[in-house]
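Sample pair:
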Amino acid sequence: MKWIRMRRPAAAFAAMCFCFPAGAEVTQFSVIATDRPALDGRSFGAYGTAEKIIARATIAVDPNDPHDAVIADVGLAPRNAQGRVEATAEVVILRPTRGGNGTLLLELPNRGRKLMPMLFDDVAEAAAQRLEHAGDAGLGFLLDQGYTLAWVGWQGDLPAGPDVMRVQVPTIPDVTGVSREEFVFDHNRSPVTAPLTYPASAMPGDAVLTVRAHTDDERQRPSDLSFRFTDERRIEITRPAGFDAGAIYELVYTARDPMVLGLGFAAVRDVATFLRQGTADNPLGRPVQRAYAHGVSQSGRALRDFLYWGFNEDERGRLVFEAMNPHIAGTRRSFTNARFAQPGRNPASHTDRLYPADQFPFTYAVMDDPVSGRKDGLLLRCRLTNTCPKIFQTDSNYEFFGARASLLVTDTHGDHIDLPAEVRAYMTAGAPHFSDPDAIVTRTPACALPVNPIHAGAPLRALLVALNEWVRDGIMPPSSRYPMRSDNTLVAATEPFPAIPGLAYTGFYNPAYLVDYQTTPPSVTGRYPVFLPRVDGDGTTVAGIHIPAIEVPRASYTGWNPRAEGFASGALCTNMGSVAPFAATRAEREAAHDPRPSLEERYPTPASYVAAVRASTKRLLAERLMLPTDAEAAVKAAEADTLAKLHR
């Protein structure tokens, strides 16, 4: 990690270390660097400038404590002199220097990266990782609201590197077992090297490499496919003829020294608990009244797992987070709390589909599942301990195609269910999985269609305000905006898509399977019904939050994008959406046999387009799904003809 220079006297802050009694959850909190004022002294309204703290937190868990015994292999891990298992997490804190709103907003980094600034403050990824210069705060929304921001490394299998936040966890020596790696290279170079999550055993000769064109195809071992171990953590693959750039290579091998990766959840729990306490040892210097957790995509899935495994109750039985916002997680969890886990795996249409990150339970309500024969739900454990948070699950259009999001609001028969009282679900209609705030329409070789650039920052900012009002003031939030079976906005995957030139939907989506992991490779033993959002004549999802670029469109925006020829065509590009601009004139669209009204038919004058955008923002303001500053920005973008993000 890159440490920033210190602006306070070195003697006061260099290697400041708080050590605690053996029974404490956080046994050591070491401040590595402090920057005050941070962000070049930029001021954030009533809350003044900001302070940045970079630290490392050591936790120690008791394998015999029921709160910690759920961690896979924790009982086999090396212990300290007090009989506890330790882990050390990297921590970054950015907080107002003048009071604040009394709320800690803690993000689980996505593969070690901070994404909250990109989502809520519209900054580029490099700036989000730095958080050093005035411009790195982007809109300044989070600090203007008075939040104390924190990031805690939770993923223990990440390689060290600049701007990568990790947790260091112990390994279990002398333990071996079967591990499985999948690789999709999206290029044709050969030979090609690939990393292994775990070291191969001393005798890797039992390893088997297969190849297949698509995930449901039979695994093959053609004679011209070969591989060799270049060392215990890397293989070199010589690729066979007859397979394109998107082929799936799968290695099954005997691995050793599994990591206790479930300790990452305990690190988040214990650091959040530590920062909430108003003790002299707390670097915040004051107690935190409330704490909210946030995660994006992979870390949003981990947040659902954090809740499922009971980590929202600390070791003393206290609530950790009053609220959670798993973003773009769909109904997946993470492959973290298991032996030989791989938290980075992303089950999707073409990649990683059979990893144990997307199994029942899919939703928050506790229910019987006749497919698996189990009764479970994400809220099962916290219901028993009265530690359930208020939850805003926010998804994009993509999650219904790539992450089986329909199972959030159906039972495993496919029938409608109501969400629990403390849960709301919102989908940003027409949005891809995740897009940079400054993105425009681009092309990528692996995807057949132009890439959807819609960014979900505006609705997420409004929803964070609503979530805070719900927790702090008891003001009920906007009702869920999500496709549902009950109102016929969630329909069978076989329902036809409009015949739009340049926007051909192949009917492909990520299915939901019951998987038997006792076999190698895993085998499918059951299937769950998956539904997709109903669309209008433009191909736009009917339900969800319609931001102005979607409600007053200049193009069709989808949450799916097929893979291109030569890249496993027929499957979907992971995490991508697509876009197809409208014809400029009626004559142009008729010549193209395009059923969608043209721009001149929709908006006879530039003023009529701007007026429609203004009306859209007025509705969103009334529904508390947009903030005044974002409404004003949308109207200005419409006037400049940049709202659709089709060009600069």
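The two ends are 34 Å apart (CA to CA).
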